[in-house]
What does this fold into?
Amino acid sequence: MIKKYFKKDEWFGNIRGDAIAGIVVALALIPEAIAFSIIAGVDPKVGLYASFCIAVVISFFGGRPGMISAATGAMALLMVTLVRDYGLEYLLATTLLTGVLQVIAGYLKLGRFMSFVPRAVVVGFVNALAILIFMAQLPELTNVTWHVYALTLAGLGIIYLFPYIPKIGTMLPSPLVTIVVLTLVVFFMGLDVRTIGDMGQLPDTLPIFLFPNIPLNLETLMIIFPYALSLAVVGLLESLMTSTIVDDLTDTPSDTNRECKGQGVANIASGLMGGMAGCAMIGQSIINVKSGGRGRLSTFLAGVYLLLMVVFLADILTIVPMAALVAVMIMVSIGTFDWGTFKKLKTLPLSTSFVMLATVIVTVATHNLAAGVLSGVLLASLFFANKISHFMYCDTSYSEDNTIKSYKFVGQVFFNSADKFYKIFDFKEVVDKVIIDLTKAHFWDISAVYALDKAVIKLRREGAEVVVVGQNDASATIIDRFGVHDKPQEIKKVMGGH
Amino acid sequence: MSKVLVCLDGSRLSKAVCDYGIFISKNLNLPLVLLNVVEHSHISKRVNLSGNIGLGSKDDLLVELVNEEIQESKRLIAKGKAVLKEMELYMKSQNITNFTTMQKHGTLYETLDELSKDLKIAIIGLKGENDSTIGSHTEELIRTLSIPILLVNKEFTPIKSMLMAYDGSEYAKKAIIVGKQNPIFPNITRHIINVNRDTTASNRLLDEAKSLFANAAIEVKTKSLSGEVLQALCTYQEENDLDMIAMGAYSHNRFRSAIFGSFTTKMMLKSKKPLLLFR
It folds into this structure.
């Protein structure tokens, strides 16, 4: 157990890099945690406690060293109506249940179902997430004075231009510089703009353990279960997607089932410590790797730094203008966007682009990434079925005296190609015997079997002797199980329409 | 369980490691595998703490990291190939033909774990390249693998005798039983040593150990020693000029080891002769 869960290398293989990356990540986590709390409609402290708990717990239990998990936008968006209608305590209970569901998913090894999510849907998910994070900033940019626009633009300018300054440019995190500069400007110019302090309570103590104060009955479960389920699904999806990104960047493998369980444990801890549900963060994980973080230590330290800074700097944090936060969040949104694939859109097959766009559109419309992914996966499957159905054709031949006709089928016969299969037969032709050769065909489902039955029966009615030969084993089992052409009593049912 | 694995990292002990491999493979008439593992660190030396991400940051970062690692990997591969080539020639000069070479990416641990099913024993140079202390990975390696590992820490000398440290634990008993049924070193004298202040108890343990070897055509001597365990074992080894020390490794959990220091690790540092470790 200890051996499995505590690998020295994963913790202490890169101490210097991890310690520094941890600071950079913590600095970016603070604005994000606050921003996502605002999206969810809770006090900033809920997101900050969540980010602390999740980062620290996942550093021990996660399956992907170097990945950053905390309170996230994808999860926050799913909680909006829950918080609005039922309040914080229900959110905490939901977070707890989300964690339990994720742990179960980990034990059931559901991570393997990620293989059903095609690349196009992953890209759609990531891009939809980027768009949602950006859209979530818009309320801060509407009905405000020009000062806010100026500050936000200046903030973005600092974020993207500061790193070009020689030497110090790459030594100081530019989001931090932005926050410090904008805060000083607002403070000394006495600008009347919204600050973090206006958004709700910040943490003043370390988080404390408390069980959510809700009635423990079926009614409560009926309220929180649907939310917990979509949170669990979205959390695992984003975490597993992020883990593949980190896998690619660091050229090291990750343990997906351990990651599922880890996410669950982290959310359980978060729910018990007054935090909201979270998951892995794409943008933060990229920042971590870019800053030199590779091990578990950077995730752990990011959480610890975050809490220390927040608790001890709470007074200063309250005067940070929201414009600075918005600038950082716009950066996160831009950085999350999968630009590489977006550029390739023109060269990709139309169906792939369509799946990606559908995922984005459904997600943005519903604010629910689970819905977006589901529609993306369904569409991709249909496209796939359609493509595979093209892989079916038939060679026909006659015996010398033209009394025997052979149909030699090649390819996949299933619901989408069954119709095509049936139409290949020429029922008007008068022959004594028909040989249907399925040596190179594969029958996948009941639609295919039904089509074969229909054809055989119709050919027999036209007076031909029909022989079916060469089913491969898999086809034979499915034909045996569902086929009726050798069972006369069933024929009537199949031919009912004639 | 049918191959003798020789791990080569290009350190000055590479040839000695090979020689021990040849010795064992000749004795047991098993094929040799010469392995070089290309261990990437995947840790960037570049420092960029700008902490910002923009359009295409992920792709840019990937390209940057890939470029950085290409050179490093190529260098390590070339170095490994050179070592393998050198040892291959050495093998041929010794008229050894029953061997294969293999180069793998990953960590030594991963690679051994993967190969361990087919291995009788793995031979590793104890002093890692340019390093006088125990390689950081050695402990991890020994703790996790179930095959015997021979740690080579000096130039080759034929093995004629071995010291077996025996504490009477289930572990040690099992090591003896396995060693008797399927000896890696047949035909050498075994000195079974127990270090204990209580001589009666000690002798009882030793008799027990000796009885385990009954009806095996193996010469066994036993000796009870007193004093500090590590020192006593090493002194006995030197006085009797034994060629190898065999012992169960890391029988305590790692927390205890972390606090009190591991006996196995201390032995690795102190021993002047190769260590045969069972786990």
In short: Residues 37 and 108 of chain B are 6 Å apart (CA to CA). Residues 161-278 of chain B form a domain with the Rossmann fold fold (CATH 3.40.50.620). The longest helix of chain B spans residues 57-93. The longest strand of chain B covers residues 32-38.
